[in-house]
Amino acid sequence: RAQAGAVNIQLTKAAQHAGLHFAPDPSSQGACTIGGNVAENSGGPHTLKYGVTVNHVTGLQVVLPDGEVLELGGVEDEPFGYDWVGLMVGSEGTLAIVTEVTARLTPLPQGVRTLLAVFETLEDATQTVSDIIAAGIIPAALELMDGLTLQAVEAAFGYGFPLDAEAVLLIELDGLEVELDEERERVEAICGRHRAREVRRAQTPQERAKLWAARKKAIGALGRLAPSCVTQDGVIPRSKLPQVLREAFQIAARYNLQLANVFHAGDGNLHPVLLFDDADAEQVARVVEAGEAILELCLREGGSLTGEHGIGVEKCALMHQMFSTSDLDTMKRVKAIFNPRDQLNPEKMFPDTRYCYESKKRLRRAAMGL
Question: Is the pLDDT reported for residue 211 higher than 60?
Answer without folding.
Answer: yes
